[in-house]
Amino acid sequence: MSRHGGRGWHGRVLAAALGVTAAAAATSMWTAQANPVEGQHAPAAGSAHSGAPNAGSKAPGGTPVSVDIAHSSDRGARGVNITIDDGPDPTWTPQVLQVLRDNGVKATFCMVGTQAQAHPDLVKAVVAAGHRLCDHTVSHDTTMDTKSQAYQSQQILDAERMITQASGGVRPEYYRAPGGAFTPYSRHLAASHGMRPLGWNVDSKDFEHPGTGAIVATVKSEISNGPTILFHDAGGDRSQTVAALREVLPWLKQQGHSFGFPVR
User: What is the pLDDT of residues 77-112, one digit of tens each?
Assistant: First the structure.
Protein backbone atom coordinates (compact mmCIF):
# COMPACT_ATOMS: atom_id res chain seq x y z
CA MET A 1 0.00 0.00 0.00
CA SER A 2 1.00 3.63 -0.26
CA ARG A 3 2.89 5.30 2.53
CA HIS A 4 0.55 6.98 4.99
CA GLY A 5 1.78 9.01 7.93
CA GLY A 6 0.27 8.90 11.41
CA ARG A 7 -2.12 6.01 10.79
CA GLY A 8 -3.62 4.69 14.00
CA TRP A 9 -4.25 1.31 12.40
CA HIS A 10 -0.61 0.87 11.45
CA GLY A 11 0.40 1.67 15.00
CA ARG A 12 -1.99 -0.93 16.37
CA VAL A 13 -0.78 -3.62 13.99
CA LEU A 14 2.85 -2.81 14.79
CA ALA A 15 2.16 -2.93 18.53
CA ALA A 16 0.28 -6.22 18.20
CA ALA A 17 3.18 -7.70 16.28
CA LEU A 18 5.86 -6.70 18.78
CA GLY A 19 5.40 -9.83 20.86
CA VAL A 20 5.53 -11.99 17.75
CA THR A 21 8.56 -10.26 16.31
CA ALA A 22 10.48 -10.22 19.58
CA ALA A 23 10.11 -13.95 19.97
CA ALA A 24 10.73 -14.61 16.31
CA ALA A 25 13.92 -12.58 16.34
CA ALA A 26 15.41 -15.10 18.71
CA THR A 27 14.14 -18.22 16.92
CA SER A 28 13.87 -17.44 13.22
CA MET A 29 16.51 -18.83 10.89
CA TRP A 30 17.82 -16.13 8.63
CA THR A 31 17.90 -18.16 5.44
CA ALA A 32 19.00 -15.29 3.22
CA GLN A 33 22.24 -16.00 1.42
CA ALA A 34 23.50 -12.55 2.38
CA ASN A 35 24.25 -13.54 6.00
CA PRO A 36 22.54 -10.46 7.45
CA VAL A 37 24.25 -8.75 10.39
CA GLU A 38 22.23 -7.07 13.13
CA GLY A 39 22.47 -3.31 12.86
CA GLN A 40 23.65 -3.34 9.25
CA HIS A 41 21.26 -1.23 7.27
CA ALA A 42 20.00 -2.15 3.83
CA PRO A 43 21.42 -0.28 0.85
CA ALA A 44 19.36 2.48 -0.67
CA ALA A 45 16.91 1.39 -3.34
CA GLY A 46 18.58 0.99 -6.69
CA SER A 47 22.05 0.30 -5.29
CA ALA A 48 23.89 -2.99 -5.59
CA HIS A 49 24.42 -5.39 -2.72
CA SER A 50 27.09 -7.95 -3.46
CA GLY A 51 26.06 -10.36 -0.71
CA ALA A 52 22.42 -10.75 -1.78
CA PRO A 53 21.24 -13.68 -3.91
CA ASN A 54 21.70 -13.18 -7.62
CA ALA A 55 18.95 -11.99 -9.94
CA GLY A 56 16.81 -14.85 -11.11
CA SER A 57 17.16 -16.76 -7.83
CA LYS A 58 15.24 -20.02 -7.85
CA ALA A 59 12.21 -20.76 -5.75
CA PRO A 60 12.24 -23.91 -3.61
CA GLY A 61 10.60 -25.76 -6.51
CA GLY A 62 13.41 -24.76 -8.85
CA THR A 63 11.55 -22.15 -10.90
CA PRO A 64 13.49 -18.90 -11.37
CA VAL A 65 11.83 -15.82 -9.88
CA SER A 66 12.93 -12.35 -10.96
CA VAL A 67 14.11 -9.84 -8.37
CA ASP A 68 12.63 -7.00 -10.44
CA ILE A 69 9.45 -5.39 -9.11
CA ALA A 70 6.52 -6.76 -11.10
CA HIS A 71 4.04 -4.36 -12.66
CA SER A 72 2.83 -6.28 -15.72
CA SER A 73 -0.09 -8.70 -16.03
CA ASP A 74 0.10 -12.30 -17.19
CA ARG A 75 -2.89 -11.53 -19.41
CA GLY A 76 -0.89 -9.25 -21.67
CA ALA A 77 -1.41 -5.67 -22.78
CA ARG A 78 -5.12 -5.53 -21.87
CA GLY A 79 -4.71 -7.43 -18.63
CA VAL A 80 -5.50 -5.93 -15.23
CA ASN A 81 -4.25 -7.12 -11.84
CA ILE A 82 -6.51 -6.46 -8.88
CA THR A 83 -4.47 -6.43 -5.67
CA ILE A 84 -5.94 -6.23 -2.17
CA ASP A 85 -3.74 -5.19 0.76
CA ASP A 86 -3.51 -5.36 4.54
CA GLY A 87 -6.01 -8.10 5.40
CA PRO A 88 -7.50 -10.44 5.92
CA ASP A 89 -10.22 -8.72 7.92
CA PRO A 90 -13.32 -10.55 9.23
CA THR A 91 -15.67 -7.73 8.20
CA TRP A 92 -14.33 -6.61 4.85
CA THR A 93 -12.50 -9.54 3.28
CA PRO A 94 -15.69 -11.62 2.89
CA GLN A 95 -17.40 -8.66 1.22
CA VAL A 96 -14.49 -8.13 -1.15
CA LEU A 97 -14.48 -11.85 -1.95
CA GLN A 98 -18.20 -11.69 -2.77
CA VAL A 99 -17.76 -8.78 -5.18
CA LEU A 100 -14.89 -10.57 -6.90
CA ARG A 101 -16.99 -13.73 -7.12
CA ASP A 102 -19.98 -11.84 -8.55
CA ASN A 103 -17.76 -10.45 -11.31
CA GLY A 104 -15.74 -13.59 -12.00
CA VAL A 105 -12.50 -11.85 -11.06
CA LYS A 106 -9.40 -13.35 -9.45
CA ALA A 107 -7.17 -11.12 -7.35
CA THR A 108 -3.92 -11.11 -5.41
CA PHE A 109 -4.26 -10.64 -1.64
CA CYS A 110 -1.24 -9.05 0.05
CA MET A 111 -1.63 -10.21 3.63
CA VAL A 112 -0.10 -8.93 6.85
CA GLY A 113 1.31 -11.86 8.79
CA THR A 114 -0.44 -11.14 12.08
CA GLN A 115 -3.77 -10.72 10.27
CA ALA A 116 -3.33 -14.05 8.48
CA GLN A 117 -2.40 -15.74 11.74
CA ALA A 118 -5.51 -14.32 13.44
CA HIS A 119 -7.90 -15.29 10.63
CA PRO A 120 -6.77 -18.55 9.01
CA ASP A 121 -10.31 -19.32 7.88
CA LEU A 122 -10.25 -16.22 5.68
CA VAL A 123 -6.84 -17.09 4.25
CA LYS A 124 -8.19 -20.51 3.31
CA ALA A 125 -11.29 -18.90 1.78
CA VAL A 126 -9.10 -16.67 -0.39
CA VAL A 127 -7.14 -19.66 -1.63
CA ALA A 128 -10.25 -21.79 -2.16
CA ALA A 129 -11.72 -19.06 -4.38
CA GLY A 130 -8.69 -19.24 -6.69
CA HIS A 131 -6.96 -16.04 -5.63
CA ARG A 132 -3.22 -15.73 -5.01
CA LEU A 133 -1.35 -14.86 -1.84
CA CYS A 134 1.26 -12.18 -1.30
CA ASP A 135 3.55 -11.56 1.68
CA HIS A 136 3.02 -8.05 3.10
CA THR A 137 5.34 -8.53 6.13
CA VAL A 138 4.56 -9.26 9.76
CA SER A 139 3.68 -5.78 11.00
CA HIS A 140 3.34 -3.49 7.98
CA ASP A 141 6.29 -1.29 8.82
CA THR A 142 6.52 1.36 6.09
CA THR A 143 10.06 2.21 7.22
CA MET A 144 11.36 -1.23 6.26
CA ASP A 145 13.87 0.29 3.87
CA THR A 146 15.65 2.04 6.77
CA LYS A 147 16.00 -1.07 8.94
CA SER A 148 18.69 -3.72 9.26
CA GLN A 149 18.81 -6.71 6.97
CA ALA A 150 18.10 -8.96 9.96
CA TYR A 151 14.89 -7.03 10.62
CA GLN A 152 13.87 -7.17 6.96
CA SER A 153 14.49 -10.93 6.93
CA GLN A 154 12.41 -11.47 10.04
CA GLN A 155 9.53 -9.39 8.72
CA ILE A 156 9.44 -11.11 5.34
CA LEU A 157 10.21 -14.70 6.31
CA ASP A 158 8.05 -14.82 9.44
CA ALA A 159 5.12 -13.41 7.45
CA GLU A 160 5.72 -16.03 4.77
CA ARG A 161 5.56 -18.71 7.45
CA MET A 162 2.43 -17.27 9.07
CA ILE A 163 0.58 -16.99 5.77
CA THR A 164 1.61 -20.48 4.65
CA GLN A 165 0.49 -22.01 7.94
CA ALA A 166 -2.80 -20.10 7.89
CA SER A 167 -3.52 -21.19 4.33
CA GLY A 168 -2.94 -24.85 5.09
CA GLY A 169 0.29 -25.02 3.13
CA VAL A 170 -0.20 -22.66 0.19
CA ARG A 171 2.78 -20.33 -0.02
CA PRO A 172 2.64 -16.66 -1.04
CA GLU A 173 3.80 -16.11 -4.62
CA TYR A 174 4.64 -12.41 -4.26
CA TYR A 175 6.17 -9.97 -1.80
CA ARG A 176 4.90 -6.39 -1.54
CA ALA A 177 6.87 -4.05 0.70
CA PRO A 178 4.66 -1.88 2.93
CA GLY A 179 4.46 1.57 1.41
CA GLY A 180 6.69 0.39 -1.42
CA ALA A 181 9.68 0.34 0.96
CA PHE A 182 11.69 -2.15 -1.09
CA THR A 183 15.44 -2.54 -0.85
CA PRO A 184 17.74 -4.51 -3.14
CA TYR A 185 18.25 -6.89 -0.23
CA SER A 186 14.53 -7.47 0.41
CA ARG A 187 13.85 -8.02 -3.28
CA HIS A 188 16.59 -10.61 -3.57
CA LEU A 189 15.50 -12.30 -0.34
CA ALA A 190 11.89 -12.54 -1.49
CA ALA A 191 12.88 -13.88 -4.91
CA SER A 192 15.13 -16.49 -3.32
CA HIS A 193 12.02 -17.74 -1.50
CA GLY A 194 9.94 -17.87 -4.66
CA MET A 195 8.14 -14.56 -4.10
CA ARG A 196 8.21 -12.01 -6.93
CA PRO A 197 8.50 -8.43 -5.66
CA LEU A 198 5.17 -6.76 -6.47
CA GLY A 199 4.53 -3.09 -7.13
CA TRP A 200 1.49 -1.22 -8.37
CA ASN A 201 0.61 1.21 -11.15
CA VAL A 202 -2.67 2.64 -9.88
CA ASP A 203 -3.18 3.63 -6.24
CA SER A 204 -6.94 3.88 -5.78
CA LYS A 205 -6.35 6.00 -2.63
CA ASP A 206 -9.17 4.06 -0.97
CA PHE A 207 -7.20 4.10 2.30
CA GLU A 208 -7.93 7.80 2.59
CA HIS A 209 -11.72 7.29 2.49
CA PRO A 210 -12.20 9.89 -0.28
CA GLY A 211 -15.64 8.58 -1.21
CA THR A 212 -16.71 5.83 -3.59
CA GLY A 213 -16.95 8.21 -6.53
CA ALA A 214 -13.43 9.49 -5.99
CA ILE A 215 -12.00 5.97 -5.82
CA VAL A 216 -13.76 5.01 -9.04
CA ALA A 217 -12.63 8.22 -10.76
CA THR A 218 -9.00 7.63 -9.72
CA VAL A 219 -8.98 4.15 -11.22
CA LYS A 220 -10.61 5.30 -14.44
CA SER A 221 -8.21 8.21 -14.88
CA GLU A 222 -5.05 6.29 -13.98
CA ILE A 223 -5.57 2.84 -15.52
CA SER A 224 -3.50 4.00 -18.48
CA ASN A 225 -0.51 4.06 -16.09
CA GLY A 226 -0.44 0.27 -16.01
CA PRO A 227 -2.35 -2.86 -15.04
CA THR A 228 -1.79 -3.34 -11.31
CA ILE A 229 -4.42 -1.61 -9.15
CA LEU A 230 -4.09 -1.22 -5.37
CA PHE A 231 -7.08 -1.60 -3.04
CA HIS A 232 -7.40 -2.50 0.67
CA ASP A 233 -9.58 -4.88 2.69
CA ALA A 234 -8.37 -3.89 6.18
CA GLY A 235 -7.20 -0.94 8.23
CA GLY A 236 -10.59 0.59 8.92
CA ASP A 237 -13.96 1.00 7.24
CA ARG A 238 -13.60 -0.43 3.73
CA SER A 239 -17.23 0.06 2.65
CA GLN A 240 -16.13 2.60 0.03
CA THR A 241 -13.69 0.06 -1.39
CA VAL A 242 -16.39 -2.60 -1.66
CA ALA A 243 -18.76 -0.16 -3.37
CA ALA A 244 -16.03 1.07 -5.70
CA LEU A 245 -15.12 -2.47 -6.74
CA ARG A 246 -18.76 -3.07 -7.66
CA GLU A 247 -18.49 -0.20 -10.14
CA VAL A 248 -14.89 -0.55 -11.30
CA LEU A 249 -14.82 -4.24 -12.17
CA PRO A 250 -17.71 -4.15 -14.69
CA TRP A 251 -16.35 -0.90 -16.15
CA LEU A 252 -12.93 -2.45 -16.72
CA LYS A 253 -14.58 -5.34 -18.56
CA GLN A 254 -16.55 -2.90 -20.69
CA GLN A 255 -13.28 -1.23 -21.65
CA GLY A 256 -11.97 -4.52 -22.99
CA HIS A 257 -9.75 -5.47 -20.08
CA SER A 258 -9.33 -9.00 -18.78
CA PHE A 259 -8.30 -9.91 -15.26
CA GLY A 260 -5.12 -11.79 -14.45
CA PHE A 261 -2.26 -12.02 -12.00
CA PRO A 262 1.03 -10.12 -11.82
CA VAL A 263 3.79 -11.70 -13.86
CA ARG A 264 6.06 -14.11 -12.02
Answer: 999 999 999 999 999 999 999 999 999 999 999 999
- Catalytic one among 119, 193, 232, 257? 232
Annotated active-site residue 136? The verdict is no
Q: DSSP readout, 146-157?
A: GSBHHHHHHHHH
Helix (H/G/I), strand (E/B), else coil: 247: helix
DSSP state of 111: E
**What is d(CA 113, CA 165) in angstroms, rounded to the nearest whole number?**
10
The answer to whether 233 is a known catalytic residue is: no
Lowest mean per-residue pLDDT among 22-31, 43-52, 184-193, 207-216: 43-52
Residues 6+ apart with CB under 8 A from 82: 100, 105, 106, 107, 108, 229, 231, 245, 249, 259
Element (H, E) at 197: strand 196-197
